[in-house]
């Protein structure tokens, strides 16, 4: 069964450092998403991406965040200058069409010290 | 009012019990509805989509009441492996999914 994969599974970084989280969506999917979940809280939408551009973003997704699809398979989330409050689990998801089931990757646990 | 609201639980039930979870949503224009399951520190996994006509998948039954903006999930004959957090999820016909905080279920022997 096709699945979304994410690397790394865990990342520890110092405040102010840049991090790049990587995702490989399901191969025939066209819509890609990033969500985050702070420990003990609900899953929150960050951004959606379609046709090589951002289609929607939340207020959490400020100028410190960017997304990119550098090649035909990878989808990345970059945080330019990490803050303590960026510590969370980051989930990538993909879907074949908008308003269709989104399938989630296993997540990257980011810890900012 | 929260966009998606759920009772956080926990619901502690014995094996074999029937348990029901409820959820309300605030955006009446919402188009798609789902129940996801999340195990501790894992990703959300789709349990089932929810349709106005109601739908059943084995021991799981989901119902949607658009007039009341209410979604439910019924689990019959609970198994130990059903222990997880159940997430009510709404798509308001945009790209994003809106998650509830989840209802924790613990099934004991």
Account of the protein in words:
- The complex is a heterodimer of chains A (113) and B (109).
- In chain A, 0% of the residues lie in helices and 50% in strands.
- Chain A is globular.
- Chain A has no helices and eleven strands.
- By secondary structure, chain A is mainly beta.
- With 109 residues, chain B is mainly beta.
- Chain B is built from no helices and eleven strands.
- Chain B has strands spanning 4-6, 11-14, 19-25, 32-38, 44-50, 55-57, 60-65, 70-75, 84-91, 98-99, 103-108.
- The mean pLDDT of chain B is 93.
- Chain A binds chain B through residues 31, 33, 35, 41-45, 48, 50, 55-56, 58, 89, 91, 93, 98-107, 109, and chain B through 31-32, 34, 41-46, 49, 87, 91, 93-102.
Helix content of chain B: under 10%
Distance between the termini of chain B: 37 Å
What proportion of the residues of chain A form beta strands (DSSP E)? over 45%
Strands of chain A, total number: 11
Low-pLDDT windows of residues of chain B: none
Number of helical segments with 4 or more residues of chain A: 0
Largest sheet of chain A: 7 strands, mixed
Strand content of chain B: over 45%
Q: Helices, strands, pairings?
A:
The complex is a heterodimer of chains A (113) and B (109).
Chain A: E1 5-7, E2 10-13, E3 19-24, E4 31-37, E5 43-50, E6 53-57, E7 65-68, E8 75-79, E9 88-95, E10 103-104, E11 108-112
Parallel strand pairs in A: 2-11
Antiparallel strand pairs in A: 1-3, 3-8, 4-5, 4-9, 5-6, 7-8, 9-10, 9-11
Chain B: E1 4-6, E2 11-14, E3 19-25, E4 32-38, E5 44-50, E6 55-57, E7 60-65, E8 70-75, E9 84-91, E10 98-99, E11 103-108
Parallel strand pairs in B: 2-11
Antiparallel strand pairs in B: 1-3, 3-8, 4-5, 4-9, 6-7, 7-8, 9-10, 9-11
Keywords:
heterodimer, A: 113 residues, four-stranded antiparallel β-sheet, 0% helix, globular, B: 109 residues, six-stranded mixed β-sheet
């Amino acid at each position: 069964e096709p699945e979304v994969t994410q690397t790394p599974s865990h990342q520890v970084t110092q405040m102010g450092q840049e991090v790049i989280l990587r995702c490989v969506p399901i191969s025939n999917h066209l819509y890609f998403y990033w969500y985050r979940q702070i420990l003990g809280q609900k899953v929150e939408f960050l951004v959606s991406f379609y046709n090589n551009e951002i289609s929607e973003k939340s207020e959490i997704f400020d100028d410190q965040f960017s997304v990119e699809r550098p090649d035909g398979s990878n989808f990345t989330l970059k945080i330019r200058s990490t803050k303590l409050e960026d510590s969370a689990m980051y989930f990538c998801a993909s879907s074949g069409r908008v308003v269709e089931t989104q399938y989630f990757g296993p997540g990257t646990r980011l810890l900012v010290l | 009012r929260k966009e998606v609201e759920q009772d956080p639980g926990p619901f502690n039930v014995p094996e074999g019990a029937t348990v029901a979870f409820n959820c309300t949503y605030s955006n009446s224009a919402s188009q798609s509805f789902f129940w996801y399951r999340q195990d501790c520190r894992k990703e959300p996994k789709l349990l089932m989509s929810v349709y106005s006509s109601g739908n059943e998948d084995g021991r799981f039954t989901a119902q949607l009441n658009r007039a009341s903006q209410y979604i439910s999930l019924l689990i019959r004959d609970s198994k130990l492996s059903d222990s997880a957090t159940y997430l009510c999820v709404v798509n308001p016909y945009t790209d994003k999914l809106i998650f509830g905080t989840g209802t924790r279920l613990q099934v004991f022997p």
